[in-house]
Each structure stands twice: as C-alpha cells, then as structure tokens.
Design a protein that fits this description.
- The chain is of the alpha/beta class.
- The chain folds into two domains: 140 residues, Rossmann fold (3-Layer(aba) Sandwich), CATH 3.40.50.720; 161 residues, Lactate dehydrogenase/glycoside hydrolase, family 4, C-terminal (L-2-Hydroxyisocaproate Dehydrogenase, Chain A, domain 2), CATH 3.90.110.
- 46% of the residues lie in helices and 19% in strands.
- Strand 4, helix 4 and strand 5 form a beta-alpha-beta unit.
- The longest helix is centred in the last third of the chain and has 24 residues.
- It is globular and about 55 Å long.
- Keywords: Coiled coil, NAD, Oxidoreductase.
- This is Lactate dehydrogenase.
- It comes from Eremomyces bilateralis CBS 781.70.
Amino acid sequence: MITRIAIVGAGTVGATAAYALLLGSVANEILLVDIKTDRRDGQAHDLSDAAYSTKSSSRIRSATYHEAGECDIVIITAGSKQNVGHTSVELEYRNISTLKSVIHAMKPHFRHDTILLVVANPVDVLTTIALGVSGLPRSQVIGSGTFLDSVRLRGLLADKAGAKANSIGIYVLGVQGETQFIAWSAATFGGVPIDKALPIDTIDRIELADQCKHVARTIIQAKGTISFGIGAIVASICSSILNDKRDVRPLTTFQPDLGCCVSLPVVLGRKGAIRTIPVELNEEEKKTLEETAKALKVEIEQVRGEL
C-alpha cells in the first residue's frame, strides 16, 4: 500500500518538515502544494536531490490541492510568518483566511480516513476552525499544539537535573502560547513523582516555565521562524499515525467538555487522536485549563462573527 503525505505551504517550515519526513522515510510519497508554484517546484527539486543523496525511500514532488486532498495525511503549514512587530491579531486573521481557503480547495477530495494536521499559528484557534470547515471527524483533525514545547521543557529540565530527557515525563498543556501551563502535578522523573525525585526548592519552576515559553520568541528574533524543531515533531506525529504506533503525545484536539481544541495528551494512531489520556491536574492547573479554554472559545466566536 502506497502512503502519501501532503504539505500545504512550501515555505521554510513546510520544506523543513518535508526534509524531516524524507530523512525518516516516513511515507512513500511526499507532495508539496503552494500557491507560489515557482517556490513549490524549486523546493521539490531541491528536496528530491536530498532524497537521492540520503538514500531515502520516500519520493517528493509538486502537486495540486486535488491531489493533496487524496493523501493519508494533509499537513497545513501555509500562513504568514510570526514576525516580531506584527500583532497576534493580524497574524491570526491572515492565517485563518489562508486556512479556510486551502481546506475549501481540498475538501471535495478528502478521503474518509484523511488526517488533517494543522501546524500554522495560532494552532488552537486554527485547529478548531479547521474542524468546522473540513467536515472531518473530530479524531482526524489535530494540531501540533504543545508537543514541541513539551519536548523543549524535557530538555531544559534534563539539563538542570543532569539526566537524560527520556527519563522525564512532563507535559506543557492547554492553549499553546502565552497561557500554556506545565502539568507539574502529573510530572515524573524516572517514574517517580517529580516532587519526590526533584524537591521543589532544587529547581526554579517559574523561571523554567518562562524560559520554555519564550525560547520560541528568541528563535524568531534571531532567524525569522521556527523550523527544525517543528519539522522534527511533524515527522514524529506522521510516523505515529501511519504506523499506528499508539504513542501518547500532547496535541491540539477537540475536547467536548471544554468545547474547543486545546493540547492534552492523546493516543495517536492511524485513525488520528484515538482517545485523550486523563491527566490528574491540581486545582490551580484545572482552573488555568478551564479559564484559558473559555477565553479561547470567546476568541473563536468573535473571529467567526467577523470573517
């Protein structure tokens, strides 16, 4: 069976995601789609050279929205860069418009089992909008959410603790960005609750949370966009889906009790987000999750009313 992944948006993020997918030979074919056909074709040729030189079993080519809609996974990276100096409102409205346009172009061609992966920002808003526009089942519309933030946090914490990152179980959850939070109450270190393994006075948790949250801004200021980290997690998500690995990842999915899409740990397989893993949060963390989800719903309703 031939597996295909489409990437809509052949800019820096889309191309880097394609490169990560090629290196891992995640799918048989990777299709690039972009309204700027010269850029799309140039990226496809460049990445094809990389595929041959790395002996990847994946092949990459330019494609249309029609072809993209027929793929196993459709990754949406298309959107404006999160440039310093631009307001979040400006970014949000431009990217919502782009998202709706590309989904409408692909929607008639979606398969019953197509998985839609939203990577553009603001990811929670866009994933919620994508769910409504695409008509796909809730489990098949997911966003990259706080996966990269969680990976980054584990690395930062591992450095301070003098241990390997894979020995730490910790998630950044909620609405990705300024209001995201760390689920310290559910965190573990070597399988032991983190409060016991790393007493609270050994690490400045507030400083660590701020550092994790604002690394993205530092990267954007330095090089214009985040690409390598996003590319790596996109490849990981797609591998989990196509190979039905049942990995647990903190991703943006629709949460019925909250009424919108936010990041919580989900079991990831061929049918998308198979189920949400309940996390035992303390009262403060629960309150943060509920309040930020409520604010997100208000924001989404406002956007829907104005577009």
